[in-house]
TrEMBL record:
GO terms for molecular function: orotidine-5'-phosphate decarboxylase activity. This is Orotidine-5'-phosphate decarboxylase. SUPFAM superfamilies: Ribulose-phoshate binding barrel (SSF51366). Its EC number is 4.1.1.23. Pathway: Pyrimidine metabolism; UMP biosynthesis via de novo pathway; UMP from orotate: step 2/2. It comes from the Bacteria. It catalyses: orotidine 5'-phosphate + H(+) = UMP + CO2. It comes from Gramella jeungdoensis.
């Protein structure tokens, strides 16, 4: 899906919500554990209940890798289910990969070709040759970590180097690698006040903004500083939606949580 098509979906659904599928066997309703594939059963129920209110899903790969082969199978089934049942939905593999070029090429093949995701999150630390193999997939998006939502973001990302914070250098340098508009950036919702500066460097690029909900980020603040006339935002929430309830109607309650965010988003879109 191109950035333009994603923007069209956002205006059509009046939502720039991404639901995070951080599916943890210790947190899903216990009655699902007797199912053949509890992770997929949970994801399917969440997707069926929330898809009307969001434009994207972001499985965090760690949650699938942690349970081995079963996790990888559930991940593949989840992406296939999304693409077959809801082809208008955008998919993000939250993998935070990046290695020497030769190895990054294999990561890119895994997430884009084998699993068929529309995008993957990538760590910029190893530089251009570690990111280029992802960017070579010009019909996919590479989502580079810029300024993350966690406390540790202040350890390196905001350090001054040449009178400028490191995360700004990451954005400025990497945007020159992008010939085909297929680069997005991660900026944590907990760092919303930085978005005004970030928009001066990249006025158009899509930003994936996690951290609304469980991490305390504010949707209003994110929109205040980060929204553009083409929206340019995908705001992720995981735990606050998918674990809103552990009762038998967990999916319905997740749907209501997603709808509440969608309503707020529709109000923000009306202001544009
Ligand atoms: O790349 C990410 O998605 C990401 C970057 C970041 O800076 N902060 C962050 O929380 N994330 C991911 O976004 C999700 C946030 O989950 P919740 O805090 O439960 O909404 C998790 O899967 C995180 O790994």
């Amino acid at each position: 899906m191109t950035s333009k098509e994603l923007t069209q979906q956002i205006f059509k659904k009046k939502s720039f919500l991404c639901v995070g599928l951080d599916t943890d066997l210790d947190r899903i309703p216990t009655y699902l554990l007797s199912e053949e594939d509890p992770v997929f059963s949970f994801n399917k129920a969440i997707i069926d209940a929330t898809h009307k209110y969001c434009v994207a899903y972001k499985p965090n790969i760690a949650f699938y890798e942690a349970i081995g082969v079963d996790g990888w199978k559930a991940l593949k089934k989840t992406v296939d289910y999304l693409h077959s049942e809801y082809p208008e939905i955008y998919t993000i593999a939250d993998a935070k990969r990046g290695d020497i070029g030769n190895t990054s090429r294999m990561y890119a093949k895994a997430f884009f070709e084998d699993l068929g995701f529309d995008s993957v999150t990538v760590a910029p630390y190893m530089g251009k040759d570690s990111v280029e193999p992802f960017l070579e997939f010009t019909n996919k998006h590479t989502i580079l970590l810029a300024l993350t939502s966690n406390e540790g973001a202040y350890d390196f990302q905001t350090l001054q180097t040449d009178n400028e914070e490191l995360y700004k250098q990451v954005i400025k340098t990497s945007k020159g690698w992008n010939n085909s508009e297929n680069l997005m950036y991660v900026v944590g919702a907990t760092k919303a006040e930085y978005l005004a500066d970030i928009r001066k460097i990249i006025p158009e690029n899509f930003l994936l903004v996690p951290g609304v909900g469980a991490q305390g980020g504010s949707l209003e603040e994110v929109c205040k500083y980060g929204i553009t006339k083409n929206v340019g935002l995908l705001v992720n929430s995981s735990r606050k939606i998918i674990y809103a309830s552990d009762s038998s109607n967990f999916a319905e309650i997740a749907g209501a949580k997603a709808e509440a965010l969608q309503i707020q988003m529709a109000q923000e879109l009306e202001k544009l």
